Amino acid sequence: MNMAPHMASQEQQPITVLKTRPEFLAVAGTGRRWITKGFILQAAPDSRDDGRIGVGFTASRKVGKAVVRNRAKRRLRALARTILTREGKANWSYVLVARHCDSEPGFARLEADLRWALRKLADGADLRSARKPRRTEG
After folding, report:
1. ∠ at Cα 81 (76, 27), nearest 5°?
2. Predicted TM-score of the model (pTM)
3. Which residues 6+ apart lie within 8 Å of 103 measured at CB?
4. Banded pLDDT at 125 (limits 50, 70, 90)
């Protein structure tokens, strides 16, 4: 039995994986972010006009040792496959940053959090957090 036709839906949008530091910094530089218990979603409109969604994944050492970081990134990749391909905006880039938490949220909770953040973006909400001005020495 061939399962491939069921895997690819017409509603899914193609994804381009962000790989270089400048790509990640461009998304982070917009300041648009949504913070949840399990991850931080950063978003930015893309300069590309190819209808694709750019997605990057990262987990710092604060999350844990390599095994824990890799598991966190696998969960984020699964989120992107299930949610972003259907509900993400074309010509936008997203970076999913894994967060350390004492009790790991279930996958259903992560899906709900990502859907909520994407809905806020679609509604035109400004997800930038209020930043405190930096103090200058001197």
Report:
1. 60
2. 0.78
3. none
4. low
